[in-house]
Protein 1
Amino acid sequence: MENYVAYLLILIKLVLILTMILTMAAYLVLAERKILGRMQLRHGPNRVGPFGVLQPLADLIKLICKEDFVPPHSNHLLFLLAPALSVITVLLIFAAIPFAPPLTVLGHEIPMVVCDLNVGVLFFIGLSSLSVYGVTFGGWASNSKYAMLGGIRATAQLISYELPMGLALVPLVLVSGSFSLTDIVNAQRVLPFAVTQPLAFGIFFICILAETKRTPFDLPEAENELVAGYHTEYSGLRFGMFFVGEYINMALLGSVTTVFFLGGWHGPFLPPIVWFLGKVLCLCFIFIWIRGTLPRFRYDQLMRFGWQVLIPLALLNLLITGGVLLWLRG
Amino acid sequence: MNLWRGIKGTILPFWVTLSNMLRKPVTVQYPEERRVLPERTRAQIVLTRSPDGEERCVACYLCSAACPVDCISMQAAEDQNGRRYAAWFRINFGRCIYCGLCAEACPTLAIQMTPHYEFCERQPLALVYEKEDLLIEDGGKDGDYNFYHHAGIGVVNPRGSNPDETAPEDVRSNLP
Ligand code: SF4
Ligand code: SF4
């Protein structure tokens, strides 16, 4: 009996989170188009429904109705696999993210996370490395020069920026003494890590911008150089998956930043879940704002910045944090 | 100094985009809002008439020759007193790029551009306009102009009787 209830609870949480995330991704697309439009003195989409709120639905119908084309000289298996990979890896990470403190219902404690892994940080880093495969396969299997170049750039960029991202997280683990995301959030009850670890926060933020493949790091899909980069050859729902995957990724990295650096659900007055969502949405707005403002890096600048600036800085930060902790606790 | 410039160049644009976001968009929302177009806007083409109500077009083929996309065709004809006119005159608006070269080439001011632009169709053939569709009962931009009062060899008035014309010279009488 107990077992069934537990399974049922997990199922309910999964469905809730999945619908929530997919809706959020769809509306992030709309929000991005609207906000970018306003920043360029345009209206953005405003034809479908009042203020264009039904635009995501219209886009979905359009994508479903498009021809699902597989280029004849592509590697079919990998071509079909790539979009799924890029979405699944991102969705899986959500399972480890705690949205709110545990709820107590009828004497039972229900954690507000699908599974509270004790190696949540590693799980996040591992899966975000796996998501590189989606992009690489997509670029390689399409058998087209633009996709290939986009794929190569994406692979190089994601791998280079994963290192400083991982390194920026190590100090947090040192301070909170745990790999579990819930523990990391609880360690920020007084002060969020963004305040106590500003350097790590800066590095992490830049790295997740690179991870989402958005400006100023959108070289893998630079429209004016590579048509659409690794998803040039995709059409219909498969393209839609890459596209939505990108926005899910945006929501995900917003949540992850909130958990790691902005104190998760901690905040005065308002209920925890509102704080969490508010922080995530603020971060998403900042992502969009950055996209509307900054131009794209050059490839060599991107690489030099990653390897010669971010990684040494992250290492330095790690060293200082370790030293201070040793001194405090020693 | 360079670093300062770099920092300023990174931070200031954020303020620019944010302040633009709070401004009113400049978009004209077409079907609901329509701009009042200037008189000389180049859109649908018409064939005009001279003040005496005659067709201005003399079927000289200049517009057809000037048209870069070859969308004007016609057949010239002549009436009893030698006045030329177009037996049929056809403009394919599906091909027209509204460049206005035809109107510029026309010696009689017959073919003119109007600002009316909302005449799209679902059937491409419906965009082929015949002479009846093109002719209007008006002089258009220069309503008082009458080609035959300035040129046109003895068709409407005898030669040399127009106000700004001198009678033809007898070449034998003005030898040195
Ligand atoms: S406007 Fe230009 S394209 Fe159109 S009929 Fe005249 S010359 Fe041809
Ligand atoms: S140029 Fe003018 S007068 Fe000549 S054929 Fe065209 S419309 Fe007629």
Protein 2
Amino acid sequence: MSTQDQPLLSARRICRSFGPNQVLFDIDLDLVPGEVHALLGENGAGKSTLVKILSGYLSATSGDIHLDGEARHYRGSGEAEADGVVMIHQELALAEQLSAEENIFLGRELRRGLFLDRKAMRERCREALAELETRVDPRARVKDLSTSDQQMVEIAKAITRDVRVLIMDEPTATLTEHEVEVLFALIARLRERGVAILYISHKLREIERIADRVTVLRDGRLIDSGPMAGRSKEALARLMVGREITDMYPERSALASDAEVVLEARNMVVPGAVKQASFTLRRGEVLGFGGVVGAGRTALIEALLGLRPRSAGEVLRNGQPVALRHLRDAVRQRIAYLTEDRKGKGLVLNMGLRPNLTLLNLRAYCRPLIDRRREEQAFHEAIERFDIRLRTEARTAAELSGGNQQKLLLAKVMTIDPEIVIINEPTRGIDVGTKHQIYHFVRELTEAGCSVILISSEMSELIGLSHRVAVMCAGVLTGVLEGEQINEHEIMQYASGIKGVGVDEQRRA
Amino acid sequence: MNSVVPNNKSVARSQASFDLKTWGPFIALMALALLGVLINPAFLGLDNLSNMLTRSAFIGIIAIGATFVITAGGLDLSVGSMAAFIAGVMIILMNSLVEQFGPGLTTILLGIGASLLLGLCAGFINGMVTTKGKIEAFIVTLGTMGIYRSLVTYLADGGTLSLDWGVRDIYRPVYYGSLVGIPIPVLVFLLVAVVGYILLNHTRFGRYCFAIGSNEKVAEYSAIHVDRIKTMTYMLQGVCVALATIIYVPRLGSASGATGVLWELEAIAAVIIGGTVLKGGHGRIWGTVVGAIMLTMIGNILNLTDAISNYLNGTVQGIIIIVAVYLQRASWRKSAP
Ligand SMILES: Nc1ncnc2c1ncn2[C@@H]1O[C@H](COP(=O)(O)OP(=O)(O)OP(=O)(O)O)[C@@H](O)[C@H]1O
Ligand SMILES: [Mg+2]
């Protein structure tokens, strides 16, 4: 890596307002070839807004952008891409109905004469996907791909261009561990080639590994910028949040030894996803669900809740068999479910914040017509309780930053006043401060006698919060770990099927 | 940073831009009315106005039903043929009831009851097939559109079904009569609009329609019975079609294979002109009302002038629809940052 490099892309005094609200204030940023520059900040700090400005998706209210020392005024992302400034979006921005290959070459299809050169495109596409070590079929429709595969297509789309500046907005939020490794290897190669990389992530461990330089934003202002060397994770977290974060994971609440079982699932089978799973949940307990992405955890829970069909299995609530055929039945049983896909399944993005909040339990706000005042009141309570921060008066849920969306979703599922709360990947794409709040919220819930099921791919989260951890591998619940057993090594063994029940049968089958 | 109560300025601003969108169709209606007056002062005559509103009632009532279907992400192409079919059955039924009950109120009430029931059932079928069969609404209702159309032709044996003259005399006021100076069809239109407005904007059902039309998955994960609500929108549409038919039958006193042709497109056009989003998630009842009136007004203005041939009615309507939607999109674009 060279040191005397001129910045390739430099931004000066960038400001941006949405309506009357300013979200970026005089931001300076330099991207140097062959350097990975990390951009940090809480949810809503303005990271996505800033990089959208750099890559031509948004215009700055004021400020200048220079590429190779020349002033640039991008009027669209196409112009930026022509300059080699390419961005991978936080929200997947693929055309769902098109194939992976068509998406990768969308808008710059290779041609031979008048016709599309499908062969050449497929070839380039295969190369790119191979470099990313994914098994995505170039002809598969994007709609049918898993979220992590979609993310890989998005990355492939970026690297098949002549990229000089690569901007990645939380690329790893939906990737599996292996895919993250592949991505990092790719980043290393691009860095060798002299590409300037801007990398946004909430995962400080990642930043520590790959960043050469870091810039921290808080509330739209530049707080700190400099080489990564000499800056610790803790220091960065403090800069982002503006306060010290101690006790990331609160002390677990004590579990009464005679705490009754509030929920039990027996011999659950979900076609194509879960082969065999039984578990119990006790009052005041946090039951973690570990395993790699695709192990069947979400399928198991959603089948239990009546969101997907199951071919066998029984659910007992407080010892009584219950038929949960529709999520409404689960709601009646005071079970709340927080989906992992807050944009696709959790919130109606083009609807206001209040209707989103009350949608799950709307009848509580009707008498018999919807009572707007009661909705408003509930909204204000939710803002208080869940610390939803509205820097701008957002008209729709889409305008909220990721962390605030998550808090709004949490507030939404809590409107049913549940006894059992099932949370699926609650901290995906969430900043440290908000994570901390969510963990403490889980603790408050169990304190108050609620039970929590926590599905998470973050090992530290499972270990830090759970009383017991159920681990799944390839559709089989391989074991439920307790006490001392709850550690990274043990969970990995069960998650990969080296240890645990049902493993041998599975091998033989 | 704490949660900030939005300052007054931002609220005022967002309301201002919101208002422009809400009032767009009304402004367009006013402009069109102004044009009408300039072309021919008779346009503003009480007779002409009430005549025009009465005519717009059919499409208007159907379009209010369509607003629900479209808001919830569906589409119903069968409404025109459904109206013809309901009219046909209603006429046959009333004609045969005359023998038993005579041409009295009983006959007419039974006819009306049958019409409503039929509308409800037809909507139920559309809804069930789309939701349970998981087939696109476009295809399903295209199918039922053909079915109802051919059924009415079959019932009429290729000709025209005519209502018994005795019944017609008694039934007549439903279209031609008026209450406190307002024609009955207009009153019904108004009533349906008010009920529709409350239903769409102030009840759970309406809120669910918005949610389903925006994102069905989210609705499902919000414990909403998506299939049930969607089916209900089609049933509501059926009832609206029945209501429109009940008013329509006394006007002509007959039904044939040519009754209600292209009504579905006019209804959809009225909905879209009014600012409801065709792909769902956003609906506006008053916009629909204005849209329906505008469509009739165009024909009316062309009637009053010689400058443009009456035969070009469709052309003018088409242009207005496209311009209306273009203006809405343009305002969307501007309000988006
Ligand atoms: N289209 C928009 N209209 C109005 N406000 C917006 C819009 N987009 C973003 N904002 C606001 O701008 C601020 C910055 O948002 P931005 O998405 O840049 O945050 P972020 O740092 O990327 O957060 P996250 O980590 O959650 O992705 C937020 O307060 C957000 O509500
Ligand atoms: Mg962001």
Protein 3
Amino acid sequence: MNRISTLFNSTQEPILNVYATAGYPNFGDTMLVLNALQEGGVDIIEIGMPYSDPVADGETIQQSNQVSLDQGMTVTHLFDQLKNMRQSISVPVLLMGYINPVLQFGVERFCQKCQEVGVDGLILPDLPLAEYQQSYQTIFEQYGLLNIFLITPQTSDERIKQIDSVSEGFIYMVSSASTTGAKTGISSDQEAYFKRIDGMKLKNPRLVGFGISDRESFLKASNGASGAIIGSAFVKLLGNAKNLREEIVGFVKSIKGLK
Amino acid sequence: MIDAGISFHVSEKGYYGDFGGAFIPEMLYPNVEELRLHYLEYMMEPSFQKEFHFLLKDFVGRPTPLFKAERLSAKYNTQIYLKREDLCHTGAHKVNNTIGQILMAKRLGKNKIVAETGAGQHGVATATVCALMGMECIIYMGAIDIERQAPNVARMKMLGATVVAAQSGSKTLKDATNEAMRHWINHPVDTHYIIGSVVGPHPYPDMVAKFQSVISEEIKWQLQEKEGRDYPDYILACVGGGSNAAGAFYHYLDEPRTALIAAEAAGQGVSSGHSAATTFLGKPGVLHGSKSLLMQTEDGQVIEPYSISAGLDYPGIGPLHAHLATSGRAKFFDITDDEALKAALECSMLEGIIPALETAHALAVFGKLGAKPNEISVVNLSGRGDKDLATYQEKLKLNP
Ligand SMILES: Cc1ncc(COP(=O)(O)O)c(C=O)c1O
């Protein structure tokens, strides 16, 4: 079984997935950030591959993408930085990004590299279900990569079931109609939406993303799902941190409620 | 020459050859899917057609004339007609599409509109139809374009639109499009996105092409009246995203006797590093929801384009045009800033028509086309040059 499904099957605690832009705040920080996240007790790490035009992302992540690109980050450099990742990182690792850099790298070559360095799955928001099934699924599966799909409050039940049937690992439940970092906090409407999806008895567990920034919103989100994803709030921390490792460890612990 | 096996019309899955599709985040799926399922049905409704054609006639002022440019014809020793889209209300072809899309938005039950704009022509055309229909209107425009197209910003504001500056990236059309898409993601329920060209996810390229196809529909009967045949030997248009070109080409896509000629903005020259000539510099890639030709680095990052003309300053082209270019159905010319400026001045002095800077790129092709004396060309005169006067003043040294 893949690392992600193993994790979901083996824990009852809310799962914390944290997003970090690769090569940010400094080009060489990627592995430092990953190690600190794991040290703090993160359950899943999502590494953002920077892109010039990230349309699903709000200002904070856009800006971190631009800084990383300006510092010279590329897909090739990223795989280089992750070359020995599995010597220290045991938690599941996802790559999140946009389809165009993957296309230019070569889809098969990209998947092969992912497998080589120990990446477990991909989140590519602008790769929709139909295109995935038609042109990508076979290759992704061949290299043991899970493709994580998004659903939103506007996604129809019928489509959710369709996405569930193609998904493996978990489903990324976007908390509200928005780009990343646009809103913070979880409203009662959103909690009702999480419960509604929970009631659908899907085969895949869900993690809630967008608008999660602290322990309170993390717990609220985890109430109707298996856990939650923190992105912009963590990227802000990265941008402002004076002592990177210490602050990352402290942040993860505070979210997880660990001492 | 047209290979009989090739189709230039959109496929069931939203593709033109290898290009097109709908590469959008799930947040936009419900809106785009609703549009995909209904756009043809809504467009074909007699009530839609009636309102569309009524507004094109009495509000926009269609049909636009097909004008024989005698002095330009004499200068290039060939037969040149100008399709006068500059005489459309608001001063460019863009309004053909916004009229169609505002009617579509109404049928989709939306009461707010978001749009991007480069030169400001699409923004003005969108603000205009929103005023006409009493809809709220938000226009995203690159911070640099806000500066170089100031008159259009004032027009949008006077029409009641909110103009928001896109501050990311190159601060031009690409970034305004990113921001408009983000706005739509944040307001999916009440808002329709009026894309301004034949770009974006399926079905936008096809829908916009169909609304703009009124241009070639008119050229056909107008040319029949004037020349006794309904097709030209050449039809020329500039390509930013490609909407005026798509409209001018539309009814000739399968006409083997008509050569399709597209002019792209070469900026300071294709190899200068300051260019927007996508078919010369681009590779297949995905931007703004479709697979097309795209100016990008080896790493797949989008390159910030450059052109003196805000409406052509875009690193991609619509998927139809990528297909026309790679299949050889259309011939693409790269036109520099200087060539466009020269052509704008020439058209003004010889014909009494000051064209938009975008349009001037199409006019500049006559210097390279090699059309024969008895051959007939139709240039799509996509817009008028009022919005570009500040640039013309500076570059053509017209200051007192
Ligand atoms: C007058 C005029 N022509 C052409 C264009 C380029 O757009 P498209 O290629 O979609 O016709 C613009 C865009 O702003 C324009 O204002």
